Amino acid sequence: RTLTNPQKKTYIKAVKCILAKPSLNSGEPFNTTATGVISRYDDLVYTHIQQTMSIHYVGHFLAWHRLFTATYERMLRDECGYKGAQPYWDWTLDTPASQWTQSPVFDPVTGFGGNGPYVAGDPSSPFAVPGRTGGGCVQDGPFAGINDLVHLGPGESYSYNPQCLKRDFSPYFAGRYLGMNQTLLTLSQSDFGWFNRFVEGGPSFEASGVHGGGHYGVGGMLGQMGDLYVSPADPIFHLHHANLDRLWWSWQKLDLNARLTDISGPLEIMDYSNTFDGNATLATPLTVGVSGQDVTVGDVMDITRCGTAGALCYDYDNLYTL
Question: Which SS3 state, helix, strand or coil, does residue 123 take?
Fold first, then answer.
């Protein structure tokens, strides 16, 4: 909303550039059966697939995705000459459900294109997202008509599998979980453990959070954004996670001194009782594979540290407030 049309065009041009650049993954310890890892963009999708079961419903979920999104921005800038910042998508402005499909993010000329045509699915499936409306290949925008835009997935498959970009909008799901009411409820949590759990929600569609609201609001049941493993295959992923990071930074800034070190939550997926392992700490390691240096949670807690003092160096133009 705040970018000019030329700025939007420049960003999408950089996204297309990183989609076309050859992968850096080769040799050991690279999985040589991962024949779908062709581009620099695939490098990121691949590392997300590899780590899916260790970076969701864990204490370092937000820290890992903060690093992942910042790595993507650095790739756009360093490898494709992009001069701007990574945009975030304030989805609160695109609710209630009746406004969802009119979001400028989905604009066919200056945005990322819209929904795919409706494809019937099994309504009794546990993966049937309520309110889904699409499921086919996107029909307009910069990624329409490309039958091999996505090379990996569905699920945890690394094998080359050329696919179009699919979306399966659920305005209902987006309206339920991405409104300002849900966002402020998340922001109001008094400690990181509860904040993180409100962001992610639970695995049930009846207990989601803002994280799931963006993924299933766009990807539904059949779109890549709704696939826990391969969701970064849709470039909208990075706008969504930039806003989740903005929400976390908004929460941190409400009590910055205390919240720069406030981290908790399980190391193992959904192990909130610590039955199998302990909690994440500032020393918990983070990796994005070949696309960046390995760091720790502590290295990404302050996005403004810059230089040798921290792994990140950026800020947001405005934040959520209570």
Answer: coil
Q: How far apart are CA 201 and CA 208, in angstroms?
A: 4
Burial of 113 per CB tally in 10 Å (0-12, 13-18, 19+): buried
pTM, two decimal places: 0.96
- Give the Cα separation of 276 and 171 in Å (integer): 37
Contacts 24+ apart (CB under 8 A), 76-79: 76/11, 76/14, 76/15, 76/17, 76/18, 79/17, 79/18, 79/21, 79/40
Question: 17 in the Ramachandran plot: left (φ > 0), alpha (ψ -120 to 50) or beta?
Answer: alpha
Q: What is residue 279's three-state secondary structure? A: strand
Residue range 55-111, pLDDT digits in tens: 999 999 999 999 999 999 999 999 999 999 999 999 999 999 999 999 999 999 999
Helix (H, G, I), strand (E, B) or coil at 150: strand
Would you list the DSSP string of 226-255? G-TTTGGGSTHHHHHHHHHHHHHHHHHHTT
Q: How far apart are CA 136 and CA 172, in angstroms?
A: 18
Tens of pLDDT, residue by residue over 159-178, are 999 999 999 999 999 999 99
Within the chain, strands assigned E span 285-286, 295-296
